[in-house]
Amino acid sequence: MEDLTARFEELSRLVPIPHPWDTTEYVARVAEYRGRPITLCPIDVGALSGNGCGTGSGLWIAREADDVIMYGADTEWHADHIIAHEIGHMLLGHGETASGPGDTGVDLLLSELMPSLSLESIRSVLGRRDYGSERERAAETFADLLLVEAMLPKRSPSRFRSTFFRNRHR
Ligand SMILES: [Zn+2]
User: Fold this and answer.
1) How do the domains of the chain map onto residue ranges?
2) Which residues surround ligand 1, an ion (CB under 5 A)?
3) What is the top-level taxon of the source organism (predicted)?
């Protein structure tokens, strides 16, 4: 768990967390960092019927040219948490070993939810089959760390102060 905290610190330097928190802005920064657009796709609560990952309400679909995050949430906080969880998978590099299209029962569901989504263009779907695995726990911890950090007052001023005083002693 300590490793994950260190990894999170590193990632929050690479992809700065907006203060005040702004989900759209953060997602845009992640997209820029990864060099791939991210499309947020709100769906009905429960539309994934528990086939999503994490709390069962979100799904990351990697396509050839972009990434889609589907989320079914009844509150803004819940939406943020689902999105943060899926972004955790992205930033922690969980996409590479995800199941490919055609071997999950999610395919049929996807074509119902998003008819415009060409299944051929999907590189991988990270769904519930990963639930309970180490990657699920890691993504969940990432989401928790991110949202806690997002709600904290900006810490840079104190970092600036300590640097300032350290330098003065030289
Ligand atoms: Zn997950």
Assistant:
1) 2-161
2) 53-54, 136, 139
3) Bacteria
Exposure class string for 64-80: b at 16+ Cβ within 10 A, else e = eeebbbbbbbeeeebbb
Nearest to 40, CA basis, from 4, 90, 2: 90
Are 2 and 9 a contacting pair, CB within 8 Å?
no
Distance 52 CA to ligand 1 centre (A): 8
Query: pLDDT by residue (tens digit) across 42-76?
Result: 998 888 877 788 667 898 988 888 899 999 999 99
Three-state SS at 122: strand
Tens of pLDDT, residues 79-95: 999 999 999 999 998 87
